[in-house]
């Protein structure tokens, strides 16, 4: 992939990406899918996830290939002044600089906002890290599990599993923070289009996930004095689970008044349906455990296939329980072309497609994630360095080139 060669709504945007693991790479992967030229700046050891198995080669495991697709790699030993000078040269015409180091670490490298702003006043400088730098947790290390624990999610999960604390089965903190970073950068780019002014952005995982968790759970504690605990009763009800049927389980969401009327009609309007606790969303929420337990009893009476037909006919949201293996062959995902399969220099690969659609400027899944330092020489040449200067940087170890 050549510099700026992508297509999509962000074609022409240049990003210097000093992130690793998942939060930052996921954010910048979205930019690469939408056409931006993402230059992945790596240490000589490379991104940690390069070495997570399985993979066809030791430095490009499956997760790394997926979340770094469409990017280019340059290796800089940023502990060397010559490598720092190279990065500042690359920053002169970059739109975005994004890193995932703690504030002290990026400061020690001499690459804080002031340093980048000095060479490019219009740059969007983005900090992605665990905790906001003006609080007492600012120097704590943070990974997804740690932030799930700190954000209230683990305690909420415990309320659903008999008091046993559990993590979600996905790296939700990394991905929510990555998405937040992506939309924040796009908002800053839009503001710059209006004002011509660059700026610094801070996206802390902890605050981002607390905000995410409290969308529904702040609930009665939104008010002062509180009208109730910071819990959305329906979501933390232990009865809220996939419903058992006579031969398996299904996911069902009988939620609004129209759904409940349709459900009762499908059952022949049994006598118990006339109980006042089912009459409105307010009454159902106040009695949510009893309501959900009653539904659970009813669903045991028929098979999953029978109930799915009932719910489809009644226009009540319901789906079979799918495994991640099932998703690879899901008929909807197959027919919509969600899975992107292609032969590449890294072998045959299957990617999840871009979930959003643009009528005029569609994005595109780029080439496989780059080899470590595979684009170092090309990136430096694009920045205007002569071949002899590039050779000298490689010789002294400031730059590593595959």
Question: Can you walk me through this structure?
Answer:
The protein has helices spanning 23-33, 62-67, 81-91, 103-108, 113-119, 144-150, 153-160, 172-195, 205-217, 233-236, 257-266, 281-286, 288-299, 304-314, 324-327, 331-335, 376-382, 387-395; strands at 14-18, 37-42, 72-76, 96-99, 124-129, 199-204, 243-244, 249-252, 318-320, 339-344, 347-352, 399-400. It has 402 residues and is an alpha/beta fold. The chain has 2 domains: 14-212 and 335-400, 3-Layer(aba) Sandwich (Rossmann fold); 243-320, 2-Layer Sandwich (formyl-coa transferase, domain 3), CATH 3.30.1540.10. It has a 7-stranded mixed sheet with strand order 6-5-4-1-2-3-12, with helices on both faces. Strands 7-8-9 form a 3-stranded antiparallel sheet, covered by helices on one side. A two-stranded antiparallel sheet has the order 10-11. The longest helix is centred in the middle third of the chain and has 24 residues, at 172-195. It is elongated, with a radius of gyration of 25 Å.
Based on helices, strands and strand pairing, what is the structural class? alpha/beta
The number of distinct β-strands equals 12
Provide the succession of SSEs: EHEHEHEHHEHHHEHHEEHHHHEHHEEHHE
Low-confidence stretches: none
**Alpha-carbon distance between the termini?**
16 Å
Largest sheet: 7 strands, mixed
CATH topology of the largest domain: Rossmann fold
The whole-angstrom Rg is: 25 Å
CATH class of the largest domain: Alpha Beta
Largest sheet strand order: 6-5-4-1-2-3-12
Number of helices: 18
Percent of residues in beta strands: 5-15%
Shape: elongated
Kindly report the average pLDDT value: 95
Helical proportion? 40-55%
